[in-house]
Amino acid sequence: MGSATREALTAVRDTLAQQGGAADLGAGEELFSLARLLGSSVQLRSAVADPTAEPAEKKALVERVFAGKVSGAALAVLSTAAQQRWSEPGDIVDGLEEAGVRAIADSAPESLSISDELFAVGRAVAGDAQLELALRSKLADPAAKVGVVERLLQTKASAQTVAIVRQLVADPRGRGIRESLRWAQQTVADQKQAVLATVTSAQPLTAAQLDRLRAALSKRYGKAIAFNSVIDPELIGGLRVRVGDDVIDSSVATRLSDVRLQLA
């Protein structure tokens, strides 16, 4: 990601934060629609992301085209995105999609963990080769893939999670579904001021163990911790924790492997 895009994303996030409760589930879905529209129209995307055009001109353009067609919150985010300089024209599509995920994350009640639901979807996809193929196929009609998602998640996931997964399969832009789900999880966690940690253990951890682990990781990373829990009996004992690119591996299986290597 180029420095211009990083700065543009910061401006988009700031504008989204200023919308307060207006940046709700509906606004998030509108931002998804805008991202798909710009992604499918080279002419519109080039005009909105043109680095040589004056920001005021691009703001006027999006307001002329979209005022009255999307909510004020979605239009404010799009207007800010249009006024930024992006490292690549296509980065504005990624920025609007990210803003949509963040808006939807903010719309969820405290009792709902979108991150947990997205993780469950990812596990379901990873465990079913036919389902993964159906959702990632480049030949399948996007509407058909959206239909698969809606049938799969009907009554099993929140409206927020369904909206995010629909977007990921409708507009993959070269990404695999598992990669997209991990990105969405990380974005949701970041919007909640948390760091996403995947904890793999041989047996389910107790609440006390999770609390101790959460405290240790929070101290290390300076943020709240959102957990993904994976059970893998092959670890035998101990834990493997992944936070971003960091891996903390204290599993018995790894220690035994290290001993074997030393003996060899």
UniProtKB/TrEMBL annotation:
<dbReference type="InterPro" id="IPR000711">
    <property type="entry name" value="ATPase_OSCP/dsu"/>
</dbReference>
<comment type="function">
    <text>F(1)F(0) ATP synthase produces ATP from ADP in the presence of a proton or sodium gradient. F-type ATPases consist of two structural domains, F(1) containing the extramembraneous catalytic core and F(0) containing the membrane proton channel, linked together by a central stalk and a peripheral stalk. During catalysis, ATP synthesis in the catalytic domain of F(1) is coupled via a rotary mechanism of the central stalk subunits to proton translocation.</text>
</comment>
<comment type="similarity">
    <text>Belongs to the ATPase delta chain family.</text>
</comment>
<keyword id="KW-0066">ATP synthesis</keyword>
<protein>
    <recommendedName>
        <fullName>ATP synthase subunit delta</fullName>
    </recommendedName>
</protein>
<keyword id="KW-0472">Membrane</keyword>
<dbReference type="InterPro" id="IPR020781">
    <property type="entry name" value="ATPase_OSCP/d_CS"/>
</dbReference>
<keyword id="KW-1003">Cell membrane</keyword>
<keyword id="KW-0139">CF(1)</keyword>
<keyword id="KW-0406">Ion transport</keyword>
<keyword id="KW-0375">Hydrogen ion transport</keyword>
<keyword id="KW-0813">Transport</keyword>
<dbReference type="Pfam" id="PF00213">
    <property type="entry name" value="OSCP"/>
</dbReference>
<comment type="function">
    <text>This protein is part of the stalk that links CF(0) to CF(1). It either transmits conformational changes from CF(0) to CF(1) or is implicated in proton conduction.</text>
</comment>
